[in-house]
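To close the section, here is one more complete example, presented without commentary so you can practise reading it yourself. The ligand is zinc ion.
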Amino acid sequence: MEDRFVVDTSALLSWPLTELNGAIIVQSQVKELERHSPTRAEMVEAVGVIISEPTGDSISSASVTAMETGDMGGLSITDLHLVALAYERNCVLVTDDYRMQNLSERMGVRWKSVSSDGISEFWIWKVKCVGCGREFDSPESPTNKKGLLGECMDCGSDLKLKRG
Ligand SMILES: [Zn+2]
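Output:
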């Protein structure tokens, strides 16, 4: 059977339109795409992209794994849902986002880069204070603003994702 693709927003913007026929996206990407490029949004719609949503079960599986790998703190809700959808439907995920690639590796989801080479090894990420070095648990849900993990409750410095 031919591979089906779940594509992230950068792929929606840059992949050849012919490749996007039958590709699967989530609803929240339609708005993202319209914001970036209304013309592209129209073309993408015309070419026959399928809009779907992952089930609660696959979102839970992706969430649990994203907390284990530590990627959760760097993923948006759309990112998490795309990995969950590719997992559930046994599709190939098209993304340049190395956190989505890392999570996909761990979940056994096949992935493919749009323009970069992609990750070559699997990493575990920890939430760490840049000041005192204290480690914190992974957040339990995706962030709305990537990279903003809050402040250390001990010293007030920023928290960042560091390789574990
Ligand atoms: Zn600290």
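Once you have examined the tokens, check your reading against these statements. The chain has a mean pLDDT of 92. Residues 129, 131-132, 134, 152, 154-155, 157 surround zinc ion (CB under 6 Å).
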